[in-house]
Amino acid sequence: MQLEKFEQNIGYEFKDKELLKNALTHTSYANENGVKSNEKLEFVGDAILEFVISKYLYNMYNSLKEGEMTKVRATVVCEESLYKIALEHNFSDFLYLGKSELYNKGAKSPAILADSVEAVIAAMFFDSNIEQVEKFILNNLEQSIEQASHNVGIKDYKTVLQEKLQINGEVFIEYKIIEESGPDHDKSFTAQVSCNNKVLAKGKGKSKKHAEMEAAKNAMEINNI
């Protein structure tokens, strides 16, 4: 693999190339080849991400309360945001994957790609310093932080649907996960929402919560609620 090309993509040149290779090594490849996986780096990268985003919110968004900062951080530090970073910098072209993951198109997996971003962040930290890592994180997530900070007061779709359905009195709203698909590391869920035992809509997502949110959103759109 041409790791130099990857370094160009992310705008950072590693002094320790083995550290970078480790960050891009999925468990499946590690198990097949007797090398270290990126799991420990992923663990550290997750903590660094939370710290950097928390520090940025504290310094730049004085008007946000503690609970609001927590919501913004949770919106930004999530699989979807990291997956977008991986897509933008073509992480999938440089991952070390085992045969099973290659067969299952693991290089396109949102979960695997998001985890690899966290691992690269940790590797960058160990290879340089926190300032360099902050630069990379904020260059990639500053816009998402700005957007999330504006939307922090918006209620989630499940809450909005419930309020609209109960405007004329109590109703029985139920969410069910009716389908799960994909391997354990990259599952997809389908949720169904019903009101007084009448099915309103379905929704899909990479987590049960996201699937339920999509179902609520679709219910309002389909039924003009």
Keywords:
225 residues; mainly alpha; Ribonuclease iii, N-terminal Endonuclease Domain, Chain A; Double Stranded RNA Binding Domain; 3-stranded antiparallel sheet; 11 helices
In a few lines, what is going on in this structure?
By secondary structure, the protein is mainly α. It has 11 helices and 3 strands, in the order H-H-H-H-H-H-H-H-H-H-E-E-E-H.
Written as H for each helix and E for each strand, in order along the chain, the element string is: HHHHHHHHHHEEEH
> Could you give the distance between the termini?
52 Å
SS elements, strand count: 3
**Global structural class:** mainly alpha
Low-confidence stretches: none
Helix content: 55-70%
If classified by CATH, what would the architecture of the largest domain be? Orthogonal Bundle
Q: What is the average per-residue confidence, as pLDDT, rounded to a whole number?
A: 91
Assign an overall shape.
flat
Strand proportion:
5-15%
How would you characterize the overall build of this protein?
- With about 220 residues, the chain is mainly alpha-helical.
- The protein has 2 domains: about 5-150, Ribonuclease III domain (Ribonuclease iii, N-terminal Endonuclease Domain, Chain A); about 155-220, Double Stranded RNA Binding Domain, CATH 3.30.160.
- Helices cover about 60% and strands about 10% of the residues.
- It has 11 helices and 3 strands; from the N terminus they run ααααααααααβββα.
- A 3-stranded antiparallel beta sheet has the order 1-2-3.
- α10 crosses α11 (about 210-220).
- It is flat, with a radius of gyration of 20 Å.
- The chain starts with a helix and ends with a helix.
- The model has no long low-confidence stretch (mean pLDDT about 90).
